[in-house]
Amino acid sequence: MSSDDLDETITRTYHEQWARVVAGLARRFGDLDLAEESTAEAFATAVARWPDEGVPPNPGAWLTVTANRRAIDRIRRETKRDDKQKQAQQMYDVPPEPTGPIEDDQLRLIFTCCHPALSVEARVALTLRLVGGLTVPEIARAFLIQEPALGQRITRAKSKIRAARVPYRVPSADDLPGRLASVRTVLYLIFNEGYLATGPDTDPVRRELTTEAIRLTRLVRELMPDDGEVAGLLALMLLSGARHAARVSATGELVPLHEQDRGSWDAAVIGEGRSIVRARLATGIPPGRYQILAAINAVHTDAADARDTDWSQIVALYDQLLRIDPSPIVALNRAVAVAELDGPEVALSLVDRLDPSLGRYHAYHVTRAELLRRLGHSQESRAAYDTAIGLVGNSAETAYLSRRRAQLGVRPPTD
Questions:
Q1: How confident is the model at residue 371 (pLDDT cuts 50, 70, 90)?
Q2: Cα–Cα distance, 315 to 338 (Å, whole number)
Q3: pTM of this structure
Q4: N or C: which end of the chain has fewer CB within 10 A?
């Protein structure tokens, strides 16, 4: 196996196995720090040994065994001699605690990390790190905050768990509803990172993350079948994920929605997503955020051609969403739809009045660049593209934005 193939195998194994190994160790040892650190050590051992020894037939099993050994070694080092043999014996002989209402290790870890002792932001950040396997830079971009602040948030969350002696335990059925909102947020952010990765050193579309987010959301829906927002989240993932094959060109460039080959969308997955949206509408219960987002995506998939999109319905859905989630990002997305309905000048006036904090968000500058382009303001459009390219993370979107900027022509010389 070549060095490049080995690197690709290790990277893929990390993406596929990190959360499984961490979750298994957390359930067995009842210590989140120990689980994460031992898993990291196991991957470091793989990087050191696999080039000489070869990749094992079952990398996941190898990593699990290695991580378990590292955890036991760490416990032995950190306890007294009389205690360490007893604890090591327990690790080998005592079966893991019963799974309770959640049998999937990763899903149980998500519910466990979303503990009410932590702030909502800390719950989400900690869970994305431990279960999603996302890096601190990736999570920071998802939160639109600086990396040091995000790192401190995760560290404080772990310290609070230790100080409060929050045990790793199976959440009871009564615990689940109070943790559900945070769990939905985690699953949504994991899906988003897979749908369009924010980092420069990874594939622009990470199917292992979107697939895992959908799998876990299906399990949550089985646990909470009457929760409309879980159903809406699943529909949103399905309707978005069905477009995977059309989102990146053969040359590695991001393909925007209006340019995608709709014939390559997965019709069966779209059908499942639409049926969930219709079933929720039929209940007559006012929809929440994820249900409205799913409905917006359903309208997009209803159009056989981008020119047939019902933009008035999309704007109306964004109006409804803004009433329950008046965030600047929702307002930005609404402005994009308004541009198709009322023109770019109206939309640009909306965008320019948005919260200045969006200046750190590359999509804000992309939107301005496209609207300015349509209005014929090439120099301002080019400047907005420059800012967006400086903020964007993945190579596919960088390639697309660079091409769009280049189409504006050569920048005129300045005096």
A1: very high
A2: 6
A3: 0.81
A4: C
